[in-house]
């Protein structure tokens, strides 16, 4: 009665062979370690705009999370690419037979394996591949958004620095006027009206300088947050200069076409439609379940019996109607979201171009030349005041012009910077500042340099 074990051992070896080797790193963390967040360190650094972009792309936690999410979809693609839907099954049977007072033992072994039919593996793999591509494109769009945010924060920090410089100049000019007016008043050569006017102008300039220094600190903190730098112990010096030249924008039609091709989130939405379509096809195909082939060997009444067979579930109770309905709804939802996003991209690009052109026109009106003229008027007013040829109204007018012109100039710069950042994000990076002071039109496929 030892022959059944001769059947068990070879069958078990066959089962192990079908199962395949277990990869050594199956339970390791794999690529997850590559996406661990880089810890912030205390440092003192000087950064250009490009260096700030590179640092943010390395350290940004949202990007690290998105990269880990891509790894999750890579794992799903690996699972969908398996050649067999399940592991083989091995079963053993032992039965006692009683024949007229004589008993015997029947023994058997069965090895079965489920196999794909109807192209289910290909459909599942195609759906997983499309979702992986969608995740990669969402990551790419997030990188574009982070670049735009860092570029905006960097330029706003430069603008805040320039705001401090202009406030310091205004404070110096109005302070000189107030000092001279005070001296003239003490000498009895100026009226209280002139002294009050000079004092008010100097106070407004000092208040503007306090606000400018506060805004400068806030702008640097916002940039350091994006760079994952410790604001308490790290020191940051910005080496790029603020100089906004005009974008060489193409006409609206070509720009929209480039943006629709370049917007990575729109590409991701299109791939989600493909994935939903493949999932629906797979759900319909699964109405006919996979086959299960098996082989068996057994001993009955002292005789060896071997054979092959095939089995499959009968789709009587579970007709996958619910799964098909869900898949159709997900496909329709994916199509609607793609169409809505396409319209949103067009609206965002047109709005960003409109805002940018308006900001550029305003900046041309309130540029550095206008601010320099207002500062020169204060100096000329000071000379005329020293000569005794102007009074309080002229003095107040010159001070008001300087403060108001400075504010409008900075507002125009701020709008232009914000519009440029919106244009970069809305076009998916087609238009972007490569370096502070060098605005260029980037062609599709260009990389940051």
What tags apply to this protein structure?
alpha+beta; disordered N terminus; 449 residues; 14% strand; two-stranded parallel ribbon; elongated
Write up what this structure looks like:
There is one protein chain. The chain contains ten helices and eight strands. It starts with a helix and ends in an 8-residue tail after the last strand. By secondary structure, the chain is of the alpha+beta class. Mean pLDDT is 80; it is low at 1-41 and 435-449.
Shape: elongated
Strands ordered across the widest β-sheet = 2-3-5-6
Let me know the average pLDDT: 80
Return residue spans where pLDDT drops below 50 for at least 5 consecutive residues: 1-41, 435-449
Radius of gyration: 37 Å
Topology of helices and strands:
Blueprint: H1 3-19, E1 44-47, H2 49-59, H3 61-80, E2 89-99, E3 102-115, H4 120-186, H5 192-226, E4 235-238, H6 252-262, H7 264-285, E5 291-300, E6 303-311, H8 321-365, H9 368-387, H10 392-426, E7 431-435, E8 438-441
Parallel strand pairs: 1-4
Antiparallel strand pairs: 2-3, 3-5, 5-6, 7-8
Helix pairs in contact: 2-4, 3-4, 4-5, 4-7, 4-9, 4-10, 5-10, 6-8, 7-8, 8-10, 9-10
Summarize the structure.
It contains 10 helices and 8 strands. The chain is an alpha+beta fold and 449 residues long. The longest helix has 67 residues, at 120-186.
